[in-house]
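STRUCTURE:
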């Protein structure tokens, strides 16, 4: 107990160490929220203690170039900085998560158009349900994310985010040109990714439409032809192809 008390006295007197710990806490908060929002790290894929340890290690690498104030901020200001890091981490993580969601949505469109939703699975990134093809697309996207070096680019982007949104800003500017650029970038990325997901599923949608038209024409000239039952395996085969 005496040793713990001595450590507490040292921490209370050493303002530089306290400032270091506060800065490390703020940096870790942003990085942890970013990782927690990203689909490859959320849910049951990566346990929270492991994710927190990775965030702490990455924070120790970043903190060396963070410009710290000369004095320890007040408790109210530290709380405001904490809220700022929460919002910054969520926004950055949400923007980085958009490709995963839209690629998964393209798989959902493919399966829905080819043979309907026959089975649903719980996604590994959360408790929501999705189709088999959508989950397959998700795993492929995660594989490309790690094997293709995109994770390294994400780490570089997180490091650059501390240049755009500093830990200790001189003044808070939640409105203005910066937030306008963030909004424009979010809208542009969302529209492009939505278009990409539709284009990715477009060949399957087109082939399924052709199969439906053919079955409809055959059923029109042959009333006793079971077009619905014949079209189901054809649509499933088109979806697999």
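SEQUENCE:
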């Amino acid at each position: 107990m005496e040793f713990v008390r001595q450590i507490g006295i040292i921490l209370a007197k050493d303002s530089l160490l306290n400032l270091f710990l506060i800065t490390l806490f703020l940096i870790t908060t942003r990085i942890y929220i970013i990782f927690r929002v990203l689909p490859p790290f959320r849910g049951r894929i990566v346990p929270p203690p492991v994710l927190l340890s990775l965030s702490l290690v990455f924070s120790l690498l970043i903190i060396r170039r963070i410009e710290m104030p000369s004095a320890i901020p007040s408790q109210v200001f530290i709380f405001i900085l904490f809220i700022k890091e929460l919002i910054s981490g969520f926004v950055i993580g949400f923007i980085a998560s958009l490709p995963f969601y839209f690629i998964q949505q393209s798989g959902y469109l493919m399966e829905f158009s080819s043979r309907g939703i026959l089975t649903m699975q719980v996604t590994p990134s959360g408790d929501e349900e999705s189709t088999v093809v959508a989950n397959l697309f998700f795993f492929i996207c995660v594989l490309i994310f790690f094997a293709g070096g995109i994770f390294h680019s994400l780490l570089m982007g997180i490091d650059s985010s501390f240049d755009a949104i500093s830990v200790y800003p001189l003044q808070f500017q939640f409105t203005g040109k910066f937030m306008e650029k963030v909004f424009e970038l979010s809208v542009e990325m969302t529209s492009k990714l939505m278009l990409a997901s539709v284009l990715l599923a477009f060949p399957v949608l087109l082939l399924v439409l052709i199969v439906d038209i053919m079955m409809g024409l055959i059923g029109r000239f042959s009333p006793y032809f079971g077009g619905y039952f014949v079209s189901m395996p054809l649509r499933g085969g088109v979806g697999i192809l």
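REMARK: The chain has one domain: 2-240.
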